[in-house]
Amino acid sequence: MVSIKSNLNLEPEMNHLSANPILQVENLTLGYRRSAWFGTSSRQQLIIRDISFAIQPNETVALVGQSGVGKTSIANSILRFLKPWHGNIYFLGQNIWQIPASRFRLIRPRLQPIFQDSATALNPMMTIDQAIMDGMKHLKLSHAEAQQRLNELLQMVELEPALCNHYPRQLSGGQRQRVVIARALATEPSLLILDEPLSALDLVTAVQIIDLLRSMRQRLNLSCLLITHDLMLAQQLADRIIVLKDGVVIDSGPTQQILTNPSHHFTRQLIHAAGILNRKT
């Protein structure tokens, strides 16, 4: 893939990454306020309590846990949708909850989510080429450069150019997810947040998307935060696994270590339920 230089002035951030993580989460605590009913006072609901982790360049870290444990809340906080009660999140060397919104908008294209429901992730009024090229706007490319990049991305995610004029409703679930991946890659991201990226797909398509994600990660040296309840998927994609239960980290380490020698009985239950007990990664 031909590299097209971005017009973004991110030199301070990229220099910072030479010796530091892409993402650093420190003592993160998250929660929600429940609205008051009939004159009663509002209540606070704690979701995530005092967790810390980092993602290094070219590394994939999986957050694993049951539904409702707070994995997506962590992603929302990294994306600056959910303000922490306590703690700090550093992305590209910037404390994202301390910098002005205008500064965050400059680095936001380098932080790209891929959600589980591709049908709602894409604008139904945009054709596929419009959706992908929309992700390039901040790069300030010429029309010829944008078209070249579009063609490269379509080839990379194995989509036929003939699909460019189609709308999301005209594509299969697997094709839509490939479009979502291409749109995310169009921004030249430093970090992908993969939030249950396979849960809406059938088994055959899911295997194809796993192969695609693995190939993209190796080819582009991407860093990824994988959010999943599926240890089998974490085994396929992640370098390290962090296991969450009741809002706290109960296990953390290299994938091989977690799957063969977990320290917490709940992790052992997850491994057994996934059918990968005693397997090598």
How does this model look, in words?
With 281 residues, this protein is an alpha/beta fold. The chain has one domain (12-35, 42-274): P-loop containing nucleotide triphosphate hydrolases (Rossmann fold), CATH 3.40.50. Helices cover 36% and strands 23% of the residues. The chain is built from eleven helices and ten strands. Strand 1 and strand 2 (43-55) form a beta hairpin. Helix 5 packs parallel to helix 7 (173-185) and helix 7 (173-185) runs parallel beside helix 8. The chain is globular.
Helix-strand layout with pairing:
Blueprint: H1 11-16, E1 23-34, E2 43-55, E3 60-64, H2 71-78, E4 86-91, E5 94-95, H3 101-107, E6 111-114, H4 118-121, H5 128-134, H6 143-156, H7 173-185, E7 191-195, H8 203-220, E8 223-228, H9 231-237, E9 240-245, E10 248-254, H10 255-260, H11 265-274
Helix pairs in contact: 5-7, 7-8
